[in-house]
Amino acid sequence: MSDQVVTRFAPSPTGYLHIGGARTALFNWLYAQHTRGKMLLRIEDTDRERSTEAATAAIIDGLTWLGLTWEGEAVSQFQRAARHREVAEELVRLGKAYYAYETPAELDAMREAARAQGLPPRYNGYWRDRDASEAPKGLSGAIRIKVPRDGETVVDDLVQGEVRFPNKDLDDFIILRSDGVPTYMHAVVVDDHDMGVTHIIRGDDHLTNAARQTAIYRAMNWQVPKMAHIPLIHGADGAKLSKRHGALGVEAYRAMGYLPEALLNYLARLGWSHGDDEVMSIEQMVSWFDIVDVNKGAARFDFAKLEALNGVHMRGMDDTALTKVFFETLPHLPNGEALALQLDEKKKAKALQAMPGLKERAKTLVELADSLYFIAADRPLQLDEKAASLLDADAKAVLKGVLGHFHALNEWTAETTEAAVRAYAETAGVKLGKVAQPLRAALTGRSTSPGVFDVLAVLGRDESLARIADQID
After folding, report:
1. What is the reported pTM?
2. Residue 223 DSSP label
């Protein structure tokens, strides 16, 4: 085995790339990057009933959006079935595995008999030492591996520490079914060995599989990769993560307006930490990450924390870069396609101009899209309920008064419009807020927006004056 670290992400294509899978992929990728190794991608599509092309595409799309790269082509486990059979038959030749010929009914009876004796319902090794000549005519048997009867299998886990499994609990499990289809347990070992995987990083729900898979490695006299079983993610209430907690596909997070960098930062912090650092760039995560620093305990997923972190990443981004990402993500956001149609090149330029003020208030790209309404909208503006209620007769009188000051301006900037509003407020003897609120409602159709003077500057003189006049008439 070479010195280079080789990790792998091996999802089953039975659905989208869910958030737990994304974190497993991230830990594999970070560890490979940190050690200057490589990550491979294997699609574990042996379950033909449930595996779909659409799910494979969704997984690859999710990884690509997150920026988690892998070396070479994605490997299909199903297409390697002949190789899995070859190894199973090799184990029989080596005397490390055997054909067993029980019918499903006989296996059920065996389990029932064990239960009746108060024993775990396991295979009793009936065909383990029988001669092949005793095989029933015309029946193809399943291949079972000979697991050592005595002692224990020790998994020296990089996260969980030393975990011991009594061999008597493992029983002689099937590696090749009687129809010639390899089992998942066996296929994984053959693939990891053939792909040169040095480190298996996966969820701790696979920990019991580790002992069985170790038995196959040893029977073939192959080196056992190092293993790291990472804790599962729980909801904020401590229960196993479900859809109501956020066990959604990665594409759902894109639709909710999260940046991939923020989502990766949040996922990295679920079960791993680096001092008190909460906000991390991809480069920092790569530089600091080590698999042995992952906690044993389950991590809790918290939408509020993810949202807050996303806001920090948005504010930290360069305005041009954030605007570019926003427009690229727009088709994935709710009503984003409709908004995209409203934004011509002129309005896009205004969006960039408004970005410093917009990103201060938004925690997601969805909120950003919402606050862009004032740029995208055409006159006359559709006012939301709160904005409409602000524009009563008194407010309209204020707008009329301030309009005169605006018309007198030679230069139109945030500074000059602010000076004009302050001058009007002073002459009229009203507080600044009494002018700013109706102005905001008239200019944006909403009761909240970026700073009202920034809005005036972004909309420009003609559009601003026209919108205010619309509300007075």
Report:
1. 0.91
2. P
pLDDT tens for 367-419 read: 999 989 899 988 999 999 999 999 999 999 999 999 999 999 999 999 999 99
**pLDDT of amino acid 364:** 97
Residue 394 near residue 470 (C-beta atoms within 8 A):
no
**Residues near 317 by Cβ (< 8 Å), separated by ≥ 6?**
259, 325, 359
Q: In angstroms, rounded to a whole number, what is the distance separating the alpha carbons of residues 271 and 66?
A: 19
Catalytic residue at 400? no
The average pLDDT across 296-324 equals: 94
Whether residue 223 contacts residue 197, with contact meaning beta carbons closer than 8 Å, is answered with no
Segment 88-113, tens digit of pLDDT? 999 999 999 999 998 888 889 988 98
Residue given tokens 């196959």 in the structure block:
216
- Categorize the per-residue pLDDT at 119 as very low, low, confident or very high, splitting at 50, 70 and 90: confident
How many Å is the Cα radius of gyration of the chain? Answer: 31
Residue 372 near residue 339 (C-beta atoms within 8 A): yes
CATH code at 80-230: 3.40.50.620
**250-374, which class in CATH?**
mainly alpha
Q: What span, in angstroms and rounded, lies between the C-alpha atoms of 51 and 396?
A: 62
C-alpha separations of 401 from 24, 362, 396, 440, 443 in Å: 61, 32, 9, 15, 16
Sequence-distant (6+) residues with CB within 8 A of 55 are 13, 14, 15, 16
Residue in the block written with tokens 């959604």 = 248
Residues of the chain within CATH 3.40.50.620 domain(s) are 80-230
Average pLDDT, the chain: 92
Positions of CATH 1.10.10.350 in the chain = 385-472
DSSP letter (8 states) at residue 413 = S
Percent residues over pLDDT 70 in the chain: 98
Question: Could you tell me where in the chain the CATH 1.10.1160.10 domains are found?
Answer: 250-374
Query: What pLDDT is stored for residue 244 in this prediction?
Result: 60
| 385-472 is classed CATH 3.30.70.660 | no
Predicted local distance difference test score (pLDDT) of residue 168 = 85
Structure tokens at 56: 């494979």
Average pLDDT over every residue of 269-279: 92
Q: Can you spell out the DSSP letters for 278-341?
A: -S--HHHHHHH--GGGS-SSPEE--HHHHHHHHHHHHHHS-HHHHHHHHHHHGGGSTTHHHHHH
- Residue linked to tokens 């997923």: 301
Does pLDDT of 195 surpass 70? Answer: yes
Task: Tell me which of 96, 137, 240, 243 is the catalytic residue.
Answer: 243
Find where tokens 């001058």 sit: 423
Distance spanning both ends of the chain, measured CA to CA: 80
Judge whether 243 is annotated as a binding position: yes
Lookup: tokens for 106: 């006989």
